[in-house]
Structures are given as C-alpha cells and as structure tokens.
Write a structure and sequence with these properties.
By secondary structure, the chain is of the alpha/beta class. 35% of the residues lie in helices and 23% in strands. The protein binds cytidine-5'-monophosphate (C5P). Cytidine-5'-monophosphate binds next to helix 12 and strand 16.
Length: 405
C-alpha cells in the first residue's frame, strides 16, 4: 500500500463497474482489485447472465460492496435506484461489454439494471467490448459502437489474440491494467485541464410574472447548460450555474444559484462574472416582461385583453461590455437566416464564440438529449454532427480550453 495516498491515480474516485455475460467476466475480478488498489471506491452492477460467469460473492468481496443485479430485492422489496447509482458514479465502466449489451445501449433498451443505469448516468461512460472476432467485426456491432461513440461513450478497443472460441483475432477484452490506466487518465485529464478557472454558466428558461398565478416563459429545459456546467466542473473549473426553474439535479461540484426572472438572472450573472474568468450564456432569457405585475389575479372579461410588455436587459450584451480579458460564449437558436443572425450576435454581444443551434435540424434544440450545433468565431465556422448534449458540452469545453490557454 502506498504511504502517500494522494499519489494514488484514482484516489476518491467512484467507479461503477458494470459486468455483462462474457467469458471475459473472469477478468473483472482483477479489474475490480486494480481499481481499488488505485484508490477508487467501486460498486458493481451485473447483468443476470454475468452471474453465470463470475459469482456475486467474488465481486462483493473484492469491491467491499453488495452486488446489484435486480431492480429490487425480492426479499424485502428495497429498490435499487439506477438514477442514484448513475449520480453516485464519477465513471461508469462496463467491462466486459458484450455485443448484446452494446446493441441494447445503442437502441436504448432498458431491460436490466445495468442498462437503466446507463440510460440515466450523467458521468463519463466507458465500455471495454469482449466478444468473438466475427461478432466484433460484424457491421451491426460496428454500427452500434459508432452510435455509442457519437453519444460520447468512450470505447476501449479490444485486443488481438486468442479467443475463448479457439479462434484468433480482434475481440479479447483489453487487459485490466490497461483499462485501469485508461479510466485514470480519462478522469485525470478532466480533473486538471480547467483547474483554477472560474466560470459562470446561465441555463434554463426565465419566468416573467403577469400576476400571482400566471407567467411568460419558454420551452428551454436547461439540459444543455447543465451539461456544460457539469463538464467544466469535471475538468476542475469552479463553476457557478445561474439557473431558471428546471427539473434537473445539480451537476457534481457545481455551485447553483436559482433565479426566476430575467432581472434576477441579470443581477446574479453580473455579480458572478466580475469574479470569473469566463461565462457561457446558455439560458433562454425572456426578451420582454410585463410592464406591470398585477398584485391580484387578473379577472377574465369579455373581449380582447392587452398586456403591455417592456424590454428586459440583455445579460450577455452587458457581460460583453464588461468583458475585458474574460471569455464569453453565447448561444443562438435561430429559425431563419441562421448564420447571418449568429454572426451579427457574435459582434453585437462581444462573444468569443457562439454556438448556433437551428430549430430546422431534427434532434436539435429544446428538451431533447441530442443537439446539432455549429461553432462560429471570428476565424470561421465549424459544423458538428448530431451529438448527445453531453458530447456537445465536451466539445464546447474543449474550445473554451483553447481560448483560456
Ligand atoms: O435572445 P438572443 O437570441 O439574442 O440570445 C442570444 C444569446 O444571448 C444567448 O447566449 C442568450 O443566453 C443570451 N441572452 C442573454 N440575455 C438576454 C437575452 C439573451 O444573456 N436578455
């Protein structure tokens, strides 16, 4: 045991190890041991078939935690929450990952605890495929791996060598030492690259009161902004997330400031930006707010009614004025003449770069889990394919890093 515990590569990290039904599951015991020796806390979730290859007793003893297989304990009805597991983990490592599990992950099938946990996990997900060479080479498997990669899943390529079938080829699960090193590097990279940087992120929709019961708002779910805040924090930044009302839980390590109206968001954002190295303006802020808020519920009456609105303050434009050496990233959601409008906003609001989403693209914009964006800066434009919001957040964080260096 090393005496300097801070030197352990996975010290304090929480790894959720998923084991599926492959003969390579015997290596999961060694993998679990190595992760523990590297300082990680390990919990294990297995598919029902995986229990045929390695016993829960072995894995429970090595991980020092009970093994999770079923959605609930049949003895006492205690619920194994896949959401809580996904939130607990800093990394979800599925090793070995069979062709069957990879296909189900790509399709979003949720028929066991390991898969439901995958669908609800917000942390980085790493898979180490293990299968026969022809299964691995099959276009169906390759297509599934491409799909998973485009959604941000990290894939540890299998190695060439002798397979359980007696054949030789590519399909052997990567060795536990390599998998442990991969996970340590992945988490380390994220930990350090933005250490010491203070960032603010605005997210979600604002709510503008009309009277005590009604308001004006919009469809923003906050998912994109939360993914960015989580990614920046995972890379070591000190993040203040200024957020409208959402159903999302706070990403790990993020300081969250809840606001309702555009005016409240303005006050919090201006205050936090003064102390920050940069900001990402992801919120869908109301452009107009009722000129007066009725103190009592407005009664209905015959005929039309008119509501007088006044302009809100543009938070991003104000931060653009105060910017100095700080970084400022904007978003634009356009329905027409997208690029011209985005370029105009880049200049007017003094953004370093702008992330353009178009409502015309299938899978982009509000509420969904995917987004299709184009980065526009003063040097040019870069169009990204359809990606998960988590992967878009990573690309944005990568670009932020190039500006902050
Ligand atoms: O609303 P608009 O399309 O001009 O918004 C573009 C960018 O400005 C977004 O990044 C948005 O978060 C930001 N914005 C803001 N305050 C406003 C309106 C927009 O920060 N009042």
């Amino acid at each position: 045991m090393a005496s300097d515990v801070t030197a352990l590569p996975l010290e304090g990290r929480r790894i959720l190890l998923g084991i599926t039904g492959s003969i390579a599951a015997y290596k999961a015991a060694v993998l679990c041991r190595l992760l523990k020796c590297a300082g990680a806390e390990v919990r294990v979730v297995m598919t029902p078939l995986a229990k045929q290859f390695i016993t829960p007793l072995t894995m429970a003893t090595l991980s020092k935690n009970p093994i999770l297989v079923e959605f609930f304990d049949p003895e006492n009805g205690a619920w194994n929450s896949h959401v809580a597991l996904g939130e607990w983990a800093d990394c979800y490592l599925i090793a070995p990952a069979t062709a069957n599990t990879l296909a189900k992950m790509a399709a979003g099938v949720a028929d066991n605890l390991l898969l439901t946990t995958y669908l609800s996990a917000r942390c980085p997900v790493v898979v180490a495929p293990a299968m026969d060479l022809d299964m691995y080479a099959h276009e169906a498997t390759q297509q599934n791996l491409r799909t998973l990669r485009s959604r941000g899943v990290e894939i540890i390529e299998p190695a060439e060598g002798e397979l359980a079938s007696g054949l030789r080829g590519k399909g052997r699960m990567s060795e536990p030492e390599q998998i442990t090193a991969f996970v340590a590097e992945l988490l380390d990279e994220k930990k350090k690259s933005l250490a010491g940087k203070r960032m603010i992120v605005t997210a979600g929709a604002t709510i503008e009161a009309i009277d005590p019961v009604r308001f004006i708002s919009n469809h923003s779910s906050g998912k994109m902004g939360y993914a960015i805040a989580g990614e920046l924090a995972a890379r070591g930044a000190e993040v203040t997330l200024i957020t409208g009302r959402t159903a999302l839980s706070t990403p790990r390590g993020v300081r969250r400031v809840d606001i309702l109206s555009a005016a409240e968001m303005y006050a919090e954002a201006v205050r936090a930006y003064a102390e920050a190295d940069g900001g990402v303006m992801c919120a869908a802020v109301a452009d107009y707010t009722p000129a007066e808020v009725a103190q009592t519920k407005i009664r209905k009456h015959d005929g039309e009614m008119t509501l007088t609105l006044r302009r809100t303050q543009d938070i991003a434009a104000e931060l653009g004025r105060q910017k100095g050496d700080r970084l400022l990233v904007g978003f634009a959601l356009e329905t027409d003449d997208e690029e011209a409008h985005a370029e105009e906003k880049l200049r007017r609001k003094n953004f370093d770069f702008i992330v353009l989403n178009s409502l015309r693209d299938a899978g982009a914009g509000f509420r969904g889990d995917t987004n299709k964006v184009t980065f526009i800066d003063r040097a040019g434009r870069e169009e990204l394919p359809l990606l998960s919001k988590r992967e878009v957040a990573r690309r944005i964080a990568d670009k932020i890093e190039t500006f902050l260096k």
